[in-house]
């Protein structure tokens, strides 16, 4: 078997040893690809995070914590976010009506206090239906973002990965997790996992009813908040400076400042268009020149008559001998 190179492009290759299982009683190497996290939209934590791709399908946060502990020791790993968790809606509030989402995003109250964020998290948790799986499986070749303690930890991980290719001592996937018990234990896979899924698929009726009631209440709350905002904004002008009368006020008007700016731009465009159209035809240009000449002649005659009247009023001047 040809050995894998230590790096491929910007990625460092991290081999891990997958222990044997009853369905495949042989240890194999699995290759993760690691690099510094450089998302398209930067975040404050990019300098101390790593981007992983080709994570095993049975990956959990505990698996990655065990892996990075084996690389750089305990206390460096903080959290992990998987691809399906980033793409999936993280809140039942994402299922609110589209017009309510737009109104609340544009004109809603900004949540800054921690108690308000905690209250929203409790509402979302109460309105979420119970999961039917005791443990998720990842899509083959999926990605994850690992957050470490600091930027120095990122450098230490990359150095440990480079050193591993020289020593050929690869960390075992899930090492030590078999001894974890209680609430922190990783649920098993295989037939136990499928039996748990079959059991969880038939949730208690009271639990499901409570989740549905909480979701309906949260849905109605978002609707009422959007209706109050729409009622307040219904008589404000839109981007063209006009007030649009809507039944129910589902479309949010523009802010007053934006409406005034749009109105001034509209007036300027109209005046510019009027000036451009003033001499659009040739006969209009000739007529305008004739009018200007006639006005000059008229002013000349008026000035000449005024001068003559002043001379007659003054009379002839006879100098003394």
From TrEMBL:
Keyword entries, A-Z: Coiled coil
- Annotated spans, Disordered: 106-127
Q: Which Pfam families match?
A: RRM_Rrp7 (PF17799), RRP7 (PF12923)
Question: In this protein, which residues make up the domain named Rrp7 RRM-like N-terminal?
Answer: 10-183
Do the record's keywords include Nucleotide-binding?
no
| Top-level taxon of origin | Eukaryota
Q: Which residues form the Ribosomal RNA-processing protein 7 C-terminal domain?
A: 201-319
Biased region (Basic and acidic residues) positions are: 113-126
- Provide GO CC annotations from the record: CURI complex; UTP-C complex
Which intervals of the chain form a coiled coil?
A: 256-310
Record-level GO BP terms:
ribosomal small subunit assembly; rRNA processing
Q: Work out whether the entry's keyword set contains Transferase.
A: no
Q: Which family does it belong to?
A: Belongs to the RRP7 family.
Cited PANTHER family: RIBOSOMAL RNA PROCESSING PROTEIN 7-RELATED (PTHR13191), RIBOSOMAL RNA-PROCESSING PROTEIN 7 HOMOLOG A-RELATED (PTHR13191:SF0)
Name it: Ribosomal RNA-processing protein 7-domain-containing protein
Q: Which organism is it from?
A: Lasiosphaeris hirsuta
